[in-house]
Amino acid sequence: MTLTVGAAALALVTGCASRAGTGATAAGATTGSAGKPLVIGASVSLTGDFSDSGKGVERGYQLWADSVNAKGGILGRKVTVKIVDDASSPTQVVTNYQNLINKDHVDLTFGPFSTLLTIPASQVAKRYGYAFLAPAGGGPDVFKQNLGNFFFVQPAPTTQSGDVFANYILSLPAADRPKTAAYAELDDPFSAPIAENIRSKFEAAGIQTVYKQVYPSETQDLSPVMAAIAAKKPDVIVGGTQSEDAYAQVKSLVQLKFSPKFMFQSNGANSPLEFPNKVGSANTAGIMSSADWYPGSKASGSDAFTAAYIAKYGGTAQTVDDNSAEAYAAGQLVEAVAAKTGKIDNATIISTLHAGSWPTVLGDLAWGSNGAPTGQYSLVQWQGGKLLPVYPSSVAQASPVFPKPNWGG
Amino acid sequence: MHALIQGIILGVLTAGVYALMASGQTLIFGIMKVVNLAQGAMVILAAYLSYQLFTTFGVDPLLSIPLTTVAMFFLGLAVEVLFLRPLRREDRSELSLLVTFAVALLLEGIMSVTWKTTIRSTNTSYANSSWTVFGYQITLVRLWAFMLSLAALAFLYLLLNRTRFGRAIRATVQNPESARLLGVEASRVSALGFGLGAATAAAAGSVYGLLYPFNSGSHYDLISRLLSIVLLGGLGSIGGAVVGALIVSTSSAIVASTLSPSWSEMTFFVILLLVLLIRPQGLFGTTARGAI
Fold it and tell me: What is the pTM of this model?
């Protein structure tokens, strides 16, 4: 077994070496080819573990290409998105980007879905001098690579998506601020760290932690955890959640008849369709979460994106996949760079995006040198059965409601 | 203290549902010496059936139980006749592990295609209601689930102890050769017994969908829990399944509410290990045949 893996690795390495020479020309050849279609390559998980989200990403890329082609393309060039399936595998994703760059000679590359795949994929792009616009995969390890060609197309690194809630709470006058907090966190790299970031901000501001537990993902019954929290009667409950566990937290609290003054969940509560469905619409009132794109967003191009999505894939604004919005935003960035510089090669994209801030359907984006976005998510809250942005004021469509109404509205 | 007592209440109420699932599992083992790895998948299938009846026709999951149990009874019957009967008697115990696991995978596949892998939950009007008793919350769904499970277990008990069919089952469990000599048709008893085990899965599944969100993959967690309960109580003993379920679900609820949810899953495995070290046949299992 070890032998075969070793042999495969060797083949891969030699493959890379023999292609390295042609790679440099491929990246350089993107300028001055007006009239030729602009080909953008991306490996997306159309099968395997990440296929649901992967398909959302694919729809976003495709939708953006359609919309830009309807306007005559970029700098007179029609856009083609070449998508290949990586089956959610971190080895396949490497092969895919090497083929896209060396065999298909694509002009630009967009990212795959998930941190697991983005890390190896961005290294391939770096090797050949390609800009790497990644709409998904914002785990801390991605930024630790410090690649320089990498841009995470979301308002902030994923583990900081809850910081906007902490900022909101700390913006309240001292009398309105919660005094005690409880944290229930799913043991997952994209759940517990979000709550932990909020906790460190809260503790620094003197909000006392009365309960903090991390539960494993196989925890089927969260009632005992929520019972322990209810017994402590905290002012605020912070859930570092994914989806099922978010629903289970709310359901348990309703059954235990404990309603805190503030409640934030990192995920699950930001699903416009699933959340009211799972916990009962009346119980959503006042619950907060964070999001980069949400139905009714006023960010640049969001209305056009929503309309195009519904026209092509059906449904309503509530059923638009936010993975698609993030993928669409990657395309908007390419368009913006071309409009500003009149050029569309990788070196220009990398140097241009590193300066200033760039409007997208996710709001204005800006990056540090490691590709970590420097903005913040929007704080969203359930009000009258709708998910509305309430903070910061630049995106707010309603004022935050507090204390949270009791269960059942 | 408050959290501890609330934890015990939650644990005891949940135990009923597990007792019901595990009783089907232990019954099948008692009759056929088959460890049914598809029991978890059957529970989830029943949860889907009652979810579908609820969302399409508005039938309350507790009221649709007669329908789902009958459907699952026949499914169980079919599984026994088609997949288990052809196995040679002397290899049956070992091979049935593979066969029932294959059935579990088959059911999982069918469920994934039919209902996708989205997490479902059956949200009735009373799903989030609870009664306040001395400051503690008794959740309505769990209370119904608990009472229903008791009723189903009582029904199972009467069936086994007061009917001809029950006597035939117990005779087969105790001594299949003698039972056959006395005119009990062992193959018929096996088929009906497997059907009965599947039917208890159906009753438990309807309740399961009310309590927890589920999808087609949920059966893996479920079967590991069921096997622990059944082993703890003693393979083949229905009373043991009830006690095992109580120990498993209260211990994990108490640990989760007082200590840490990370330790809760581990607690009952520690208990299981200790019991098996001291009493390898489980709490109520016997080393000889005929535990039921």
Answer: 0.81
